[in-house]
Amino acid sequence: MSYNLLKGKKGIIFGALDENSIAWKTAERAHEEGAEFVLTNAPIAMRMGAIKELAEKTGSQIIPADATSMEDLNNLVEQSMEILGGKIDFVLHSIGMSVNVRKGKHYTDSNYDFTTKGWDVSAVSFHKVMNVLYNKQAMNEWGSVVALTYMAAQRVFPDYNDMADNKAYLESIARSFGYFFGRDHKVRVNTISQSPTPTTAGSGVKGFDGFLAYAEKMSPLGNATALECADYTISLFSDLTKKVTLQNLFHDGGFSNMGVSDSVMDKFTEE
To answer: pTM to 2 decimals?
Structure first.
C-alpha cells in the first residue's frame, strides 16, 4: 500500500545488490511512495548484482561510484543533482564489508591492512558521503540521511569480527556529523540498528543461521525483515520524522531490550 510519503522527493540509494538487500527493498518502497532517485554501488558490486533490473523497475539511473573515493563521490552527487533536477532529499548508506571476515581471519589475529580497508568501506565512507553533500550544500532543508548498522556496535557477537568496530565508528559519525548537518543545513542524520537479516552480506558471517534463529526466539515480535526495515527507512525519509536526528534507532522486534525470553530459557531447561 502506498501513502505518497515521498511524493516529489529525490534521493540517492547506496548498496542495492540483489532482491535480498535492504537497499533494494528500500528502493522499491521509495518508488512506490513517489520518490525519484539515483542508484549507486561500487563497480565490482554492480558486476556481481542485478542492479540494472532494479533500475528498470523503478525508472532510475545508475551511477557507479566507489564510496571510499572522494572523486567518485563528488561526481556522484553532481550527476545526481543534474539527473534529478535539483537538490537531494534523502540518502541511504547501506554499505559494509570486512576483508578479515571474507578471508577467515579471527578477530584476535587481524590483518590490519584488511582492517583498514573494511573500516574505510563500512564506516569512513559514511563520513565521506556526508562531507560531499554538506560542502556542496546538496541537501534540501529537512532532508534525511540514514545508514544501516547492527547491535554488535554495543554488545559482543564474537563472529561479527571487526565489523562490530566499524559499526560503532559509523554510529559515532552519524552523531558527530549529524550535529553540524542539522545546525547548518537542517538535515537529519540517523542510523537504523536492524535485526540480523539474511542478505548476501549478512549471510557471510560465521554461524549466521544459528544466530538468526536465536534472535527470532529472543525477540517478542520476532526478527524484522528486510522489507520491514525498508518501511522504517521510508518513514525516516518522510516529513513525518522531521525532528528525529542523531539517533541510533533499534529495529529488531525488541531484541535490544531483552535479557532472556521464555522460549530461549525453555531450551536450557529441557529434560
So the answer is: 0.96
